[in-house]
Amino acid sequence: MKTIFFAPMRLAPRPEKPPRPLLKMLLELTWLQWAYFWVGWLAWTCDALDFFSVSVSVPALGAQFNRPTSDITQAITLTLLFRTVGAIVFGIFSDRFGRKWPLIFNLLLVAILELGAGFVQTFRQFLALRSLFGIGMGGIWGLATSTALENLPVELRGVASGVLQEGYAFGNLLAAVISLKLVAEVRPGWRALFWTASGISAFGAFLRCLLPESEAFLKARLAAESAAGGTISEGEKTRVFIRETTAMLKKHWALCIYAVLLLTGFNFLAHGSQDLYPTYVEENKGLSTHAAVVATIIGNCGAIAGGALAGWGSQFLGRRITIVLCEILTAAFIPLWILPNGFSALAAGAFCIQVGVQGAWGVIPIHLTEMAPPAFRATFPGVAYQIGNMISSAAAQIEATGGEHLKTVVNGKVVPDYGKVQGILIGAVVAFVILMTIIGPAENHSSHFERHRAAFDKRGAGENAFIDDDDDEVVQAERPDKDSEKASEERVSTEKPQAQQVAA
């Protein structure tokens, strides 16, 4: 199939049945569906809490290790650089062995490394542990999204995507609250934040232990064994998994590149607007540490609201249209974000810009999962996300270094102009994200990816290898309606039509 970009942006396909009320659908969920979702959300929240432990502690870490801000942000850069390794390792384990135990091990690894960071005595030790932490952090997003979304009804996945993604904002908010209420009151100072974050991550691993394996993954595994006529050895599953992964990469290399470029823009947007925000408020606006933390909390409240609303709206407007609208909103509020000097206006700017930034992000979990080859919905989104993170890893250092070259005067003192640097960076990134969204492939909106065969199943790399509900045989299904058929034709793919593969 020819690779096609600039697919028209359309509203979401009209559902075959009248949409049910949101509250009714939520009430119909089983306790296990709720549990899968909230454990996935908690895992992603823990990830963010552990990551932002550094961002909210930059001044304290600088004082502890006698280092400037640009040096402390190296820890953020190194964490982001190593996240790709974790995404590849844990994503492969999840698509090959299941959702449960890879996520448990991932959360325990993060908890151990976060705990160790609270005991370091030198800056080199701190950098080393934060680099290793990046490996652990990199795996969680892909595992959390697949755990949370694949067991939910299709109609709820938009709003669930928004709420799930804003676990990131909630983790940031939680880090700010702990820094505000606990760190200032206890003798260990910033170390208490890292220890607390470690305990919450370990608790998340414990909760995942209590739940069974994902029902969607179990169904795919049973279908693979049924098609093979009995139990398949682990070695054979691994050989099939490697073969199907190779086939997927050959078919979808263009889609992989596109997803990485899109997520590079999104990660620059997130880290550029958040990582140095507390430092910017303190140094550029002359406000207290307490005020900076409160402004961060207000901004994250905007992020949570924006993510949930945009995720819900994308179920009707479509994923791409919702992303573009949120990016336009972000650009409109850049002046309110950087120009005021008073706390109230700054906090309002933080709230509004995070509604836009994290509103767009709220669509990403479901958009990327629907875009992914279905059998690789833990590996593909996670790796694309974390390679984008790796490319954008220097965002905080770019802003810190740019601030050293652009100066401003605050209370008679010359300081780095972080506000101007952030405004320029975010404005450029917003334009890039809008461009990448417009030139992207058509959406696979409301895809039933949970019915797809597993990656260790023969023909699992095929897009249309669905499991039949009655006899677990493969259904080489046609798209059910014209809208989704047209979307399938416009998707970015180098895959040949399946009929040609069979004939070959």
UniProtKB/TrEMBL annotation:
Molecular function per GO: secondary active monocarboxylate transmembrane transporter activity
A Pfam family of this chain: Sugar_tr
Composition skew (Acidic residues), residue ranges: 466-475
An example Gene Ontology CC term for this record: plasma membrane
Biased segments, Basic and acidic residues type: 476-494
Broad class of the protein's primary localization: membrane
Skewed-composition ranges (Polar residues): 495-504
Keyword Chloroplast belongs to the record: no
Keywords, sorted A to Z: Membrane, Transmembrane, Transmembrane helix
Transmembrane segments: 75-94, 101-120, 192-211, 252-270, 290-309, 321-339, 423-442
Biological process terms in GO annotation: plasma membrane lactate transport
Compartments it resides in: Membrane
Ranges where the record places region Disordered: 460-504
Signal peptide: none
All residue ranges annotated as the Major facilitator superfamily (MFS) profile domain in the record: 36-445
PROSITE patterns: MFS
Membrane topology: Multi-pass membrane protein
Protein name in UniProt: MFS domain-containing protein
Species, as recorded: Mycena sanguinolenta
